[in-house]
Amino acid sequence: MDETNELIQQRMRKLETLKKEGINPYPNDFKVTHNSGDILKIYGSWSEEELKGLSDPFRLAGRIIAIRNFGKASFIHMKDQTGKIQAYFQKEILGDESFQFFKRFDIGDFIGLEGNLFRTKTGELTLQVKKFCLLGKSLRPLPEKWHGLTDIEIRYRQRYLDLITNPRVKEVFLMRGLIIQRIREFFNQRGFCEVETPMLHPIPGGATAKPFRTHHNALDMDLFLRVAPELYLKRLVIGGLEKIFEINRSFRNEGISTLHNPEFTMLEFYQSYATYLDMMEMTEELLGSLVKEFHGGFTLTYQEKRIDFTPPWRRIRFKDSLVEIGHLDPIILKDPQKAVETARKLGLELKKGTSHGRVLADLFKEWVEPHLLEPTFVTHYPTEISPLSRRNEEDPEVVDRFELFIAGREIANGFSELNDPLDQRERFLQQLKEKTEEGDPSLFFDEDFLVALEFGMPPTAGEGIGIDRWVMLMTDSPSIRDVIFFPLLRMEK
């Protein structure tokens, strides 16, 4: 039997003994009055004399993460969500029976404490325990050398252990929660209404991504997990909701990488009587304010690279970026065959019948996107790769659309919405034709959305922002798995 199994067996025996003695190892009647974070924040600078003036006891609860025994006295470190605090158990104060009961506790157990604050000889703020109780018996030992683990998959598979033993991980997820809270506040303050749209769709739409398929037994119909909420949100705009947002979970049955997880979180928002230019200004304001609040200014460091978010952010047209940043021959912008030849010469694989715009997009991804470190709005994308965007008034070959890139990756996509139902129908048909020629069965024709659009949609602009990728930047996390509590992993054999 290995060491871990032996320790588990020891704890199982302790559990049985507790039960035989009539002690409930999992009670739920302890009332907490304080937490460690508040205690350290409020009383951390108090002197010993000032602490003696506190008469009311403190009641805390949390997990034991360290124990030091010294004969007739013991110290523990106890951790709750707000931090950790030291507690002191003294046989002289607790009595022999109670003190011996404490000696049966293990690292990992949950404990309730009641006592008063004092300072040790080394000056550490500590709780002098007067009463305590077991709140939850741990049957498995915590890993002793967690910080030395090199198998990162274990951290992702057992995120609960990662959170227990790695304060940095907890900080990342607490920041994620605060970021989402601030985003909600930003839109609420501007009169936007938060909405919820379906996650099960009869037809996948809103993005050209491969969907997950499922089946509803009672209705005997196939359904799809949403790849994006866009078409349902536009239905709400048609219905008269002029300023809306949704923080949603979307699903795409595609590859997994440091930037992609099949299940991810997006912010989508729409505003009537606004344009893609308004969306860019709002994005600068939203994301810039988050950087300033959480990093104390308009700069942050991501993977040892300094990124400056001081507005205004750079703006460059899609085709100009291929020449100025990608250093590609301008002839590819007008000659589809030259674009194909260039792509193949550079090692890109193209599907049969790939459109000129799609070839340019593939070249952009390889030769421009990685070089966009500072916040950059790339605008005026080809119409043929933007089926839901409004055509540009001056040049109908491009649309009023932008994508925001930071640290070499796409963070946001926004545009003035196409509200011409006849143009939208033509573009859906063209998109369906191209996908059919490429042998891609993932695209469906959404007649219901076209019917809704025919009732009339006001001029509107909308945008989607990838929450996970944004949190990666804000927390200096190298992988999307570091900012998702439970990323999708292959099942262990």
Written account of the structure:
- With 493 residues, the chain is α+β, with helices and mostly antiparallel strands.
- It folds into 2 domains: 3-142, OB fold (Dihydrolipoamide Acetyltransferase, E2P) (Beta Barrel), CATH 2.40.50.140; 164-326 and 368-482, BirA Bifunctional Protein, domain 2 (2-Layer Sandwich).
- It is 34% helix and 24% strand.
- Helix 7 (159-165) crosses helix 8, helix 11 (318-324) crosses helix 13 and helix 12 (336-345) runs parallel beside helix 13.
- The longest helix is centred in the middle third of the chain and has 23 residues, at 167-189.
- It starts with a helix and ends in an 18-residue tail after the last helix.
Write a concise keyword list for the protein shown above.
BirA Bifunctional Protein, domain 2; eight-stranded mixed sheet; 16 helices; alpha+beta; OB fold (Dihydrolipoamide Acetyltransferase, E2P); 493 residues
List the topology elements.
Layout (H helix, E strand, L loop, with lengths): L2 H18 L15 H8 L4 H5 L5 E13 L2 E8 L2 E8 H4 L1 H7 L7 E10 L5 E12 L15 H6 L1 H7 L1 H23 L3 E2 L5 E2 L11 E4 L4 E5 L4 H9 L4 E9 L11 E10 L3 H20 L3 E4 L2 E4 L5 E4 H7 L11 H10 L10 H12 L8 E4 L21 E6 L2 E8 L4 H17 L9 H8 L5 E7 H9 L18
Parallel strand pairs: 3-5, 6-10, 14-15
Antiparallel strand pairs: 1-2, 1-4, 2-3, 4-5, 7-9, 8-9, 10-11, 11-18, 12-13, 15-16, 16-17, 17-18
Helix pairs in contact: 7-8, 11-13, 12-13, 14-15
